[in-house]
Each structure stands twice: as structure tokens, then as C-alpha cells.
Write a structure and sequence with these properties.
The chain is an alpha/beta fold. Helices cover about 30% and strands about 25% of the residues. The strands form 7 sheets. Strands 3, 4, 5, 6, 9, 10 and 11 form a 7-stranded parallel sheet that branches. A 5-stranded parallel sheet has the order 12-25-22-14-21, with helices on both faces. A hairpin with a 2-residue loop joins strand 23 and strand 24. Helix 10 packs antiparallel against helix 17. The chain is globular and about 65 Å long.
Length: about 525
């Protein structure tokens, strides 16, 4: 007997629901009977595929809600209670903080892949609080320095927000007090749902298969494949019976001109010139599509211009900084950055994990808030991270046109490395969405002129599809190499947030410029 999905699902989503339900049934979880037995020996990886607007996220949310209502424990990256053989678990994952935050805004308790691969190690004294909050023990703990009424306040916070770090912060306990480090996960989990799986590379996929006996990938086959996979996605290598495809467009009632344009790219006969005329026609009918002759400089501060070529990206960044009168070798608060990785030797592996766990992973979008208290430190706001305010040793590189070496605006000896984020390549934009997006069409045209193909599809169509579908509400199709002067100055006023649920340690009191001061914030 097939499980009965929610009536809000369409026929193609019902078929996908049944596809996932069959995989879960093989693993001992019966959605129809709403029972979860002990894990079986079955190991499976399946995929639910569909283009933008086909309803993948709605289906993922429905499945998550169904499993949670059945009593399946949701595993987060904040705290993992001691496992019981009788309890089944589910983790909802995304490759980046931004992609995870998109799911969380839709009510899906997602975390990043990294936060599942690496788990926090709790101070034993405070772990008993976490166990009590998570319902692992009924006895209220007694912890020196924390009053019983404070624990009640923490419990009330947890019951409302389901956040261990947030509940700790509610009683004045910082993350540095109760998290003593990070470790690579050793024990396997149970069921894993992975959104934006088109971004996975082979190594990540293999890591996930080791951890999750039952793995469900949600992905868009029309996006750009990770570098090194020759145009293939990891789900392309799954056997055909393990893949199901959604085709109907569900997103945005009343039709979306943005999605209409994205899906029009699937027509094999459409060329670039014809497509650009379609963009112009859409702009005349609907203000959600804008054809602009100039890049909007103000919008670049929070929504980067998406382009194909790296030299275009560098020139756009230079124009943005010049328009805002930013010092050539400095930074102003409010400038956007992109994390380019962590520059630390292997002996500092623990410090690397600490930084990455706080959201500073490669590709993370960050806003510069100002210099830290010590040379080389920067105060940063990590977009999409649950705890966005961080301070860390930073190496900030400002690339220049026609120059081989970038300027260094912040020069820690080692730490998190950043590039400017006013413009990014379309490849790096995958997994992210913004309310408004500017697409630099001269680069799309250049890709069309180059005549390149990727996995049987013209590259320019893949680039245009990915770039267009990053826009949630409005698409700006920029047609000229021009930049409009900013109307507003750079600001951080829009980034004001409540006190973070897990504060970072205070910056060290070591002498300025010392090696200790440069390293202790990792």
C-alpha cells in the first residue's frame, strides 16, 4: 500500500513522494503506517530532480514534517544527543550556509554538510544542561553559577526555538564556555536529505554515503556541475531507477516571468539574441524583470553582479570600490566579501574546524563590519549563518585589473582568506539566492559566441539558467559595460541582529602583532 502524501502535492510530486517512501521503507521507516522500526542493512542513495520552481523544496519540507511528526529525531549541527538504537534520526543538509538559511526561512531545520561532518565537543559540565534541554534526562541539572530560574528560562527558549546555543546564551553562557572543540564524526547517522546536491563533488558524496545509510539528494540537473566532474552531477551516476524527475512548475502563484525565462532556455532552438528579446518583452509586461544599461552600484553591496569571466568580475569590483571612494588598499564597513578558504597549516586543524563551523567556509558571503581590536583581525557578518557576528584573523585580498598580485587590505599571518564580493562568478553563486539579482549579459553573450558545450547543453544556457534562478523577486538583465553612481553610501545598519545565540571568545589580550594574537581566534 502506497503512502498518502499531503493533498497539496501535485501528481508528479506524489510520484516523487512514493519514490522516497519506498527507499525509507527499505530502511525500516514506513510512512503509510507511520512507524519506524530498527535500521535495516539496506544502503541506498536516490535522487529527486527538477528545475527551478518544480517543487523540490515543498516536497522536502513535506517529507521532513511527516518524519518529524512520526517522532524521528532531527539532527542539527548545534548539539547531538546520545543516540539510542530505538530512535531513528533525520538530518537536512545544504552545501553552504546561504543554502541552509534559505531552507530554514521556509521552516525546514537545515544545517550545512560541514556542521554534520564535524561535530562540537561539549564541556561535560554544560553537556548535562544540553541533555536536559533536549529531553534526554528529566532531572534538572545543578550547575555552579547558574540559578534554577535561569535554567527554566533556557528551557523556555529551547522549547520555542529548538536551539541549544540559543538557550545557553539566554542564561549568559557563551559558546566558548560550553564548546571545547570540534571533531570529525566517527559514528554513522541514519537518514540524510541533501538540498542543492548539484553542488556536491565526488569526495563530499562519498563522505555522505559513509555517514548516511539512506541518502536522498534533491538537485537541479540544469545547473552547472562542480569543477572536475566534466559537466556531470553526482546524481547523474546513480542508476536510472533511483532517480525521479519533477516537471511541473509550482513556485510563485500567478506565474513568474523569471521562471518562465529560465525554463525557456530548455528550448534547443532558442539562440542568445532570441532569448534576450524574450527578456526585453518580459520586462515590458512585468516589473519583476528589468532590462538595465547600467549596473546598480547600491544593489552590489548586498547582491553581487553575476558574471562568467573572472576579469569581468575584477573590473566590476574595481568600479564599485571607485564609485564608493574606497581607499585602494583599505576597506569600508559595509563592503561585501566572499570567503576563499582557510589558510592554516595542518597542525592547526582544530582551529580550522572552529572557523569553518562558525560559517567561514569557502564560498561563504560576508559583510565587513570593521577592523578588530588587534592587527590583522576583522569583524565580520556571515550572511545566512545562525550566529552571524564573528571576529577573526583575516587575509583580505583586493584583486586589481591587469595585476597578477592582489592588494592585501587585511594582513593576518594566517587565518580566513577573503576576496571582494561585489561581483561573483555564476559558478560561485550556485546554492545562493537573493531578493534581487543583476546578471551581466555581455558575459553570457561572450559564452554564446565561444560556442562551448557542457554535458550536451550550450554553456551560455547553463550560465543564464543558474544566474536567472538566483533571483527570488526581481531580475536585472544588465546589457552594457556601465555602472550607475551610488545613491547611498556603504552601511551596516541593515545587519543589526539580536544578541547572537553563540558568542565567540573575546579577542586575545596578547601583545598586538604577536603570533598568539594572530591565531587565538580560530
Amino acid at each position: 500500500m502506497q503512502p498518502t502524501p499531503s493533498p497539496t502535492l501535485s501528481p508528479d510530486q506524489e510520484a516523487a513522494f512514493s519514490h522516497v517512501a519506498a527507499a525509507l521503507a527499505r530502511a525500516g521507516v514506513d510512512l503509510d503506517a507511520e512507524t519506524a522500526g530498527l535500521p535495516t542493512d539496506d544502503n541506498s542513495a536516490i535522487a529527486v530532480l527538477g528545475k527551478a520552481g518544480s517543487g523540490k523544496t515543498l516536497l522536502l519540507a513535506q517529507l521532513c514534517a511527516k518524519l518529524r511528526d512520526m517522532g524521528i529525531d532531527i539532527v542539527s549541527g548545534d548539539y547531538e544527543p546520545k543516540r539510542s538504537k530505538e530512535r531513528r534520526t533525520l538530518a537536512i543538509l545544504a552545501p553552504t550556509n546561504k543554502a541552509a538559511s534559505v531552507l530554514r526561512l521556509r521552516g525546514v531545520p537545515a544545517t550545512t554538510i560541514h556542521r554534520i561532518l564535524y561535530t562540537p565537543v561539549y564541556n561535560p559540565e554544560y553537556e548535562q544542561i544540553a541533555e536536559w534541554l533536549a529531553g534526554q534526562t528529566q532531572t534538572k541539572p545543578e550547575v555552579e553559577g547558574i540559578a534554577p530560574e535561569s535554567l527554566d528560562r533556557a528551557k523556555a527558549f529551547y522549547d520555542l526555538h529548538q536551539s541549544i546555543p540559543g538557550a545557553m546564551a539566554a542564561v549568559g553562557v557563551r559558546g566558548s564556555d560550553f564548546i571545547s572543540g570540534w571533531k570529525r564524526r566517527e559514528e554513522p547517522l541514519d537518514i540524510g536529505f541533501v538540498d542543492e546536491s548539484s553542488m556536491l563533488d565526488e569526495r563530499q558524496f562519498e563522505d555522505l554515503k559513509e555517514i548516511f545509510p539512506t541518502l536522498v539528494l534533491f538537485g537541479d540537473p540544469a545547473q552547472l556541475a562542480p569543477v572536475g566532474l566534466s559537466g556531470e552531477m553526482v546524481f547523474d551516476r546513480l542508476p536510472a531507477p533511483e532517480r525521479v524527475t519533477l516537471s511541473r512548475i509550482h513556485r510563485q502563484e500567478g506565474d513568474s516571468p523569471i521562471l518562465d525565462l529560465a525554463h525557456a532556455l530548455g528550448d534547443p532552438d532558442i539562440g542568445f539574441d532570441q532569448f534576450e528579446r524574450m527578456v526585453e518583452q518580459a520586462a515590458r509586461r512585468d516589473d519583476r524583470v528589468v532590462v538595465a544599461e547600467r549596473v546598480d552600484c547600491d544593489l552590489m553591496a548586498r547582491s553581487p553582479v553575476l558574471c562568467w569571466r573572472n576579469n569581468t568580475r575584477v573590473r566590476l569590483i574595481t568600479a564599485f570600490r571607485n564609485a564608493h571612494h574606497v581607499p585602494v588598499d583599505g576597506l569600508l564597513p559595509g563592503e561585501p566579501l566572499i570567503c576563499d578558504g582557510i589558510e592554516l597549516p595542518l597542525k592547526h586543524r582544530k582551529k580550522r574546524l572552529d572557523l569553518e563551523a562558525r560559517g567561514l567556509i569557502k564560498g561563504a558571503q560576508v559583510i565587513y563590519l570593521g577592523p578588530g581590536q588587534k592587527p590583522g583581525f576583522a569583524r565580520l557578518h556571515v550572511l545566512g549563518a545562525p550566529d552571524p557576528q564573528v571576529s577573526a584573523a583575516a587575509i583580505i585580498k583586493i584583486e586589481q585589473p591587469e595585476e597578477d598580485e592582489p592588494l592585501i587590505a587585511s594582513a593576518a599571518r594566517m587565518g580566513a582568506s577573503f576576496l571582494h564580493g561585489a561581483a561573483v562568478t555564476i559558478h560561485k553563486a550556485q546554492g545562493s539566492q537573493w531578493s534581487e539579482v543583476q546578471v551581466f549579459s555581455p558575459d553570457i553573450y561572450a559564452a554564446a559566441r565561444a560556442g562551448r558545450n557542457e554535458a550536451g547543453l550550450p554553456l551560455w544556457k547553463r550560465l543564464a539558467y543558474v544566474a536567472i534562478t538566483r533571483a527570488e523577486e526581481r531580475l536585472h538583465w544588465v546589457t552594457r559595460y556601465r555602472l550607475a553612481k551610488p545613491k547611498d553610501g556603504l552601511s551596516t545598519a541593515d545587519l543589526k541582529v539580536p544578541p547572537p545565540p553563540m558568542a565567540l571568545p573575546q579577542e586575545p589580550a596578547a601583545e598586538a602583532g604577536s603570533e598568539v594574537a594572530q591565531q587565538s581566534m580560530f
